[in-house]
Amino acid sequence: MPPRPTRRTLLKLGTAALAATSTAYTTGPAQATPATPATPSPSTPTHPHPVTLPPPTSPHPIGTVELHLVDRSRPDPLLPSKPFRELMIGIRYPAERGGAHPSAPWLGPAAAADWDRHSAPGLTIPTGAVDWRGIRTHARTGAPVARSAGRLPVVLFFPGDGGNRALGTTLVEELAARGYAVVTVDSTYEAEQVEFPGGRVERAVPLPDELTPEVIAALLALHSRARLADAGFVLRQIEILARGGNPDAGARPLPAGLPAALDLSRTGVLGQSLGGSVAAQLAHDDPRIGAAVNLDGEFIGAVAGTGVGTPFLLLASGPHALDTVPGWDTFWAASTGWKRALRLRGSAHGSYTDLQVILPQLTPHLEIPAAPELIGTISPARSLAAQRTAVSAFFDLHLRHRPTGFFERPGVRYPEVEVLG
Fold first, then answer.
1. For position 321, what pLDDT does the model report?
2. Most exposed among 120, 151, 163, 243, judged by the fewest C-beta atoms under 10 Å?
3. Domain ranges of the chain
4. pLDDT less than 50: residues of the chain
5. Residues whose CB falls within 8 Å of the CB of residue 194, separated by 6 or more in sequence, listed in order
6. Is 202 exposed, middle or buried (0-12, 13-18, 19+ CB in 10 A)?
7. CA-to-CA distance for 368 and 362, rounded, in angstroms?
8. How far apart are CA 112 and CA 358, in angstroms?
9. Predicted pLDDT at 4
């Protein structure tokens, strides 16, 4: 019996929007996974390799909180047998210094164990070879919001298809350290693993056995519709939060000062791969969105033809141009607002995820044939620095109305950056 399709299969088919992390789906039905640690195989190291994430460039401390949201107004669009939609989101924000607040993990313990068993092998990383559970972020769980930060513009973040929200941590933390409240959203039953309170993990619904172009297009459309509905629901819950309510399903305590700090009159959206297409469609459909960024995502659905009037930034990987990715040329021609398209030489689709900084830490110790295909040949430090600068400058310009000279001559500071449009 042939193996089930994986995201690496999809990447070879040229569907970058479904190949954000190049990892495999489970072969069984979506189900909760217990929080048990992965068992290393005999061929993997006794001591898993550690991984660290680079700190934000701003020295400002960061806080974070997770919210469990339940939308009982609709059945789950990806698992119709479930009569309601459950989501996990995270919010990162500038925090007060001090206090006994622990650093947040990159993945929760149950999700990290699931990633080790199911996702890492799809990256050609053996189970048990990496200490995924030990990866720490620079955000402190539950830390109070920094009073000096004032009112915070809000940015929603959506990862690539099948990816979990942790894959955008390095960009998200940069924005939070610079004074934004960033809301990261997991798409349950599409993301490879989503950990809920109590250690319950919900896995992705399996991919179909045959991935024809028609099947792939239908999957992308389904996932896009689900995410857009999720986005509207999440924005409504953040509005409740900003009014002093607590939308968390378990009514868990919120960080001090968070509701009053959220300024939803200045809201943007950032997405990688399919998340970038969702960002564009949301900017088209929702007047609350004041600026949007697409990190190397193909445009799916109507927005490819309608474009947007909202300020828009497109960051492309090395192989891509406005006339080589489906929907980019028509979107660009139809968009009427401020717009820029930049390309990072030597980058690949996965360069716009945390894999850009994770895989180079592992390749000196592990054979990872997928690495060049995923993150290209660009220096990881230069790639991340250029992305952080471009995304921060864009939101500063359009949500805070702070002039920036970056977009006039981006190649002066970063020769790796080309202007496409």
1. 95
2. 243
3. 7-419
4. 1-44
5. 88, 111, 164, 186, 188, 201, 202
6. buried
7. 8
8. 14
9. 41
Whether 70 contacts 98, CB under 8 Å: no
Q: What is the pTM of this model?
A: 0.91
Place of tokens 């002093």: 244
Contact between 184 and 14 (Cβ < 8 Å): no
Query: Could you confirm whether domain 7-419 is CATH 3.30.70.890?
Result: no
- Compute the distance between CA of residue 87 and CA of residue 109 in angstroms, rounded to an integer: 18
CA-CA distance, 236 to 239, in Å (whole number)?
5
Q: Which amino acid is at 414?
A: Y
Q: Which two tokens stand for residue 174?
A: 């940069």
Chain segment 192-222, per-residue pLDDT in tens: 999 999 999 999 999 998 889 999 999 999 9
